[in-house]
Amino acid sequence: MSKKIFLSFLFVLGILSGRFDVKADNSNYLNNRYPLIRKPYMELPLGSIKAKGWLLEMLERQRDGASSQMDTLYPEVMGERNGWLGGDGDQWERGPYWIDGLLPLAYILDDDNLKRKIQPWIEWTLKSQREDGFFGPSKDYSPEPGLQRDNSADWWPRMVMLKIMQQYYSATRDERVIDFMTKYFRYQLATLPSTPLGNWTFWAEFRACDNLQAVYWLYNITGEAFLLDLGNLLHEQSFNFIDMFLNRDHLTRFNSIHCVNLAQGLKEPVIYYQQKPEKSYIDAVKKGLADIRKYNGQPQGMFGGDEGLHGNNPTQGSELCSAVELMYSLEKMMEITGDLTFTDHLERIAFNALPTQITDDFMNKQYFQQANQIMITRHPHNFYEDAHHAATDIIYGTRTGYPCCFSNMHQAWPKFTQSLWYATPDKGIAALAYSPSEVVAQVGDGHEISIIEDTYYQMDDKIRFTIRLSNSVKEVTFPFHLRIPEWCKGAAVTINGITDSINGGSDMAILHQSRRKDSILHLAEKVLGMYLSQPVPLFEAVELLNGEGASNIVCFGDSITQQGRWFNPFAQRVREQFPGRYAVVNRSITGNRLLRDCWSRFPLKNFFGPRALERFQWDVGAFDGIKYMVVCLGTNDYAQPGTLGAPKSDRITAQEALDGLRELVQMAHAHGITVYGATLIPFGGSADCTPEKDQIRVEINRRLMQEKLFDKIVDFDAAFAREENPYLAKEGYTSKDGGHPSPLGGLALAQCIPLEWFIEQEASVIK
Fold first, then answer.
1. pLDDT of residue 522
2. Residues 562, 702: one domain?
């Protein structure tokens, strides 16, 4: 395969490049509610993404195969006697496993027959809820061969049903789900202290992350505070994967952990990270995955785990349930962290392990798969489970090995389809995993677009996107996020026949675009360390985020930074000095304050964004690869009070501002980020300025220069203010409003920042 990937765009209308404020929050889709960290990617409603090409063929084969026939192929478990239909049969996980895959398949294909199969399971589950909130099977029965009729009250199978209910709500917006889950979670909070997750079986302790993510999902909808208490309790009762990955040797020993528990549970620290964003949680998962690859890894992306963890010998088996659950874990971790290495791993499993473990007609499966599978015969292997299944572990069949995989295999391809596209906080759209598909989504100010992705990726190295606006829309501006895969050493983007190259390797290119009929503007700036040889339609900017081997510099502030008058020339200096080494990202919001949200009565409240101390976690802390942060904040905290933007009672003291900046620095340091601060420039020419307000600014600056609050500080004030009257800016340094830098003033500020600061840091790392 070629080491380049070509992204080709065809637009059915003309294109105009235009400015887009990437800091505006996305009101089109649900993100995490404070105090949960904001996610870099948001899942689209089920049914918004449709498969095309070979992926559609896979889903249709799945529909025509076992996925639609489990009630007849496996009637003793999936038939009318199932406990999740009110019967006296199987009470445990296998029935919910089937529906967990069948439901997204039904709504992605928009298949009414499949929807009708699903609905009785939904209706019975909703009606089964007791007054105290408990739901599902509640009576144990005597043993019966092939059925799990005991432990009916176990927490674990209900976690699968919670996943189902989330998906059902996403597709239908059935409000019964919200009340149902609220009552159940209240029951959990009251019951778990005396009846913990491991009361009946150990499965719930290892797999509590599926319960936990449902709790956060509901919190984002309702804002009920008790759900955060439940989140802490579920984490406390979960198996401690953080300790296991960081401090114990489980991953170096055979049979130390059940392979599906590992694949499913490894995302728990990342799920909980949303509520408690400690870097060690992410570090633990990354170390865990690295150790899995080192001691147990196989080339198709899986690990030796024939029920128990079993090393990386290519003759060892890997369970189908492990592949399915690991794919889902990677999808959720990608959504929460924005770490593109999770997507690279996801594609490796989807394109290598998964297709070969299920027959082409989707009627039979392989319980265990060997990476070096020289023959598929019925005979003993060196498997942990050899004694249990009459030597059928690698035989294709329905119930060879354990039948859990026959029940669980249905979720892999539908959920992979659902993970191809995501909404982004900047009101854009992201293509993360690549496969032929079509997405309908709202971007910008709520305008609906459709994007058709035409590709044979990874069998071919070309991807073509066709973007259409709805008939009623004449213009829309939105960022288009494109993942550059880790294996790709260079990428070429072609816009209406004009091509440019960009860097490769687990990076994210963000195309800021405006679309308006019969109009085109061209890019005139440097992209990823290279000047373009010719004008390129569409682009306003390309940002590089989360790239391994490259560091990111974030500029964090208000309109003084957001407008780009000093940011743009500073970013250009960095790119020229360190070509290909740094991506410089603007994470500033016009009107933003450090300490307080914008006044609730102000008409542009949402536009100004939440206070910087709150938004740091999702605008900066949620991203990996950020090494430096340049901070210029505080002007609006003392400038807005007494104006339309805030009452006089909001006015701060210099001490309050310094305390807030100190807290911001501490938060950044917790993420391993070096913080460079800037003094505040005068705005005496602005109508909002008074001598009283300016005295606060002067005091803040005086103490910033005296106290070692930042790792280093640059004196913007000295470079900007008049020597004879520091209340005012130098001649020509402000725009017409008298408060913001002009291009000349911005250039002066940009040149103040010593680039040797970054050289010193790099030198210290090299040494």
1. 24
2. yes
